[in-house]
Amino acid sequence: MVVVGLTGGIACGKSAVAAAMAARGVPVVDADRGAREVVAPGTEGLAAVVAAFGDDVLADDGSLDRKRLGAVVFGDAARRSALEKILHPRIAAWSAGRFADLDTEGHPFGLYEAALLVENGAWKMFDALVVVSASPDVQRARIVARDGLTEAEAQARIDAQWPLAEKRAVATWVVENDGDRAALEAQVDVLHATLVERYGRR
Question: In what order do the strands lie in the sheet with 109-113?
Fold first, then answer.
C-alpha cells in the first residue's frame, strides 16, 4: 500500500488533520502510539530501556515513567542518542507491522503521523508528505491556551523546533491551519479527494 507521511509544527493541528482523515476512512498509523506500545509493561523494549537507564525510570506500577526518562535524557545528547537507538528500530518495526496488516485488509493508502519526519530524514521513505502549518502568532496562542504557558515560554517551544519553512519546502501538500475548524475541514476535504484520486485504487 502507499504510505503518506503526515507531520507539522507544534500546535499546528497535525493530530486534528489525522483525526479528520480517519473520520473519512483513511487508516492512520500514529508513531506516538507506537512509541508507547513498544515500551509497555512486559515488553522487550521496556526491559532494554531499564537496562540502559536503570529502575529509576519506572513508575510505582512498573510502567515507564516518561517524565522521569525525559529528565534523564534532557540536555544529554549521548543519553538521548542511546534512547533513540533503543526506540526507533522498535517503533519502525511496530509501524511496519501495522501497515502490513492494513495492506492485507486491502487499504490502497494510509497516513503515518509523526512529529519529526523532516528532522530525522524519514520523510524521504514515504510516497508523499503532508505538512500541517500555522502562523507563529496562531501557534503561540494555541500553546498558551492549551498548556497554560506564557507567550515567551510558548515562543521558546516554537523556536526549539525546526522552522516550518523547512518542512513546507519538502512537502507534497501543505494544510494551512490558521482558521477555525470549518476551514480546516474544508482543506481536509480537498486533501482527501486528492489522495483518493491519486492513490485510492489498487
Answer: 28-30, 109-113, 2-8, 128-133, 173-176
Q: What is the distance, to the nearest Å, from the Cα of residue 115 to the centroid of all Cα atoms in its chain?
A: 3
pLDDT at 201: 78
Residue-wise pLDDT tens digits, 72-128: 987 788 998 999 999 999 999 999 999 999 999 999 999 999 988 999 899 999 999
Residues 65 and 118 in one domain: no
Gyration radius of the chain's alpha carbons = 18
9 and 82: one domain? Answer: no
Q: Which domain holds residue 41?
A: 31-106
Among candidate residues 117, 110, 142, the one with its CA nearest the CA of residue 131: 117
- Kindly report each contact of residues 93-97 with a partner whose C-beta sits within 8 Å and lies 24 or more positions away, as own/partner: 94/34, 94/37, 94/38, 95/29, 95/31, 95/34
CATH number at residue 81: 3.40.50.300
**Partners of 28 in beta bridges:** 111
Share of the chain above pLDDT 90, in %: 88
Cell of 150: 506564557
Q: Round to whole Å and give the CA distance between 38 and 45.
A: 6
